[in-house]
Design brief:
The protein is mostly helical. It is built from 22 helices and no strands. Helix 1 packs parallel to helix 7, helix 10 packs across helix 12 and helix 15 packs parallel to helix 21.
Length: 397
């Protein structure tokens, strides 16, 4: 019997090792494809807009919110962020755009892999297939791949907000204040700090946001007034809300032909309240990561415009959900969700003839984000029989 058990263990180890190396080779091949594909147009379009805004700050031309900003800078896109974002983009002008893109991309990938190593390194699927394979799978998801190809902030914002919510040092919430000053949508974390009575984090985050915004007013008063008096409340300043890449509730409603502002406000208000309540519940359980992820997913749904790259929150959400589920079937469903987000369904559906299926597929990321929020609600309500090592890895440092 002992010999049989030893032989079985050896066979399983060989199979596990073979799977590990096959997945590693496949991951390296996928990395090569990614490196080859990323410089394709329109990459790195958004990073180019940031850099052009930094140049505009230094040279004074063109005006940040001029209708022909994209024409004058050659980016073909307007600058849609607060003035302080342009000021903080000035360092990007020190190097050529290509160098900025390489550094930006490498830093984003390093942060994502570091997060996965810490929070998912002990997962059974990672032990079997390898961290490299899992990291590449996450990179190929639509939100992350769009973030990397466009030179967007999604990875930095997502992981930075998690650090700001989970670090032992409340001062880390300054990261959230910084991103709120740049993008506004992380302001929901400030509300989360208030309802959970994390007064120190609230002070750091709100103080950083207010300080940076005020600094923008001092340096660029005309642009600041123009932005906050008009542009900040105009959802269509960034384009057609019904565009397939807008994966918020508002975008889904527009694609369904529902353009009622009062209805959207009501739906967004309910979702915001439910999201903050769920975050509060996870906070009371002591899971700061889960609470942060819930707030992040909520911002994707309730923002008037949430481009595909804003949904990077699905990666830490999936990591957390996988750590909590206990059955093999549940883990398979999580894996299928990841596979579903790799498919570029909104982009494909946009080129299909109008139909109910095309509309449904064009909202695929919205559905995934809402589904993950619902799953985290179910997990929070369900009694836990034991705490796994994977779950423990999702607690704050």
């Amino acid at each position: 019997m002992a010999r049989f058990n030893a032989a079985l263990t050896e066979a399983l180890t060989r199979r596990r090792s073979a799977l590990f190396w096959c997945c590693t080779v496949a991951a390296l091949g996928a990395c090569a494809v990614l490196v080859w594909r990323m410089p394709w147009p329109p990459a790195p379009l958004d990073l180019g807009v940031y850099r052009a805004a930094g140049v505009a700050v230094l040279e004074g031309q063109p005006a940040l919110y001029s209708p022909d900003f994209g024409v004058q800078t050659g980016t073909a896109l307007p600058f849609t962020y607060p003035p302080i974002a342009a000021v903080l983009a000035v360092p990007l002008t020190l190097l050529p755009l290509a160098a900025d893109y390489v550094i930006w991309t490498a830093a984003g990938i390093a942060l994502l892999v570091g997060y996965l190593a810490r929070h998912a390194g002990r997962f059974d699927v990672v032990q079997a297939t390898g961290l490299v394979f899992i990291s590449v799978i996450c990179i190929w998801t639509l939100p992350v791949s769009d973030t990397l190809s466009l030179g967007q902030l999604g990875i930095f914002l997502t992981l930075g907000c998690i650090v700001g919510c989970t670090s032992r040092h409340p001062g880390a919430a300054m990261i959230i204040g910084l991103f709120a000053a740049l993008k506004l949508t992380p302001l929901l974390f400030i509300v989360y700090f208030a309802i959970t009575r994390q007064w120190s984090r609230l002070g750091w985050a709100l103080g950083t946001f207010a300080g940076l915004t005020a600094f923008g007013f001092v340096l660029m008063p005309g642009e600041s007034v123009a932005y906050f008096a008009d542009l900040a409340s105009s959802a269509d300043r960034v384009g057609d809300p019904a565009f397939y890449a807008n994966q918020s509730i508002a975008g889904a409603m527009e694609r369904l032909g529902v353009s009622s502002q009062p209805l959207w406000i009501a739906v967004a208000g309910v979702v915001t309240g439910a999201g903050l309540w769920l975050a509060w519940r996870w906070f009371r359980q002591g899971s700061l990561v889960a609470a942060a992820v819930v707030v992040g997913l909520t911002t994707v749904l309730v923002s008037p415009v949430s481009w595909q790259h804003h949904a990077v929150w699905i990666v830490p959400a999936i990591v957390f959900v996988y750590a909590r589920v206990e059955t093999a079937w549940a883990k398979v469903v999580v894996g299928l969700t990841v596979a579903f987000t790799i498919l570029r369904l909104p982009i494909w559906a946009a080129s299909w003839p109008a139909s109910a299926w095309a509309t449904l597929l064009s909202d695929s990321l919205t559905i995934v984000v809402a589904g993950l929020l619902g799953t985290m609600w179910v997990l929070e309500r369900r009694p836990r029989t034991h705490v796994t090592a994977e779950f423990a890895a999702n607690q704050p440092a």
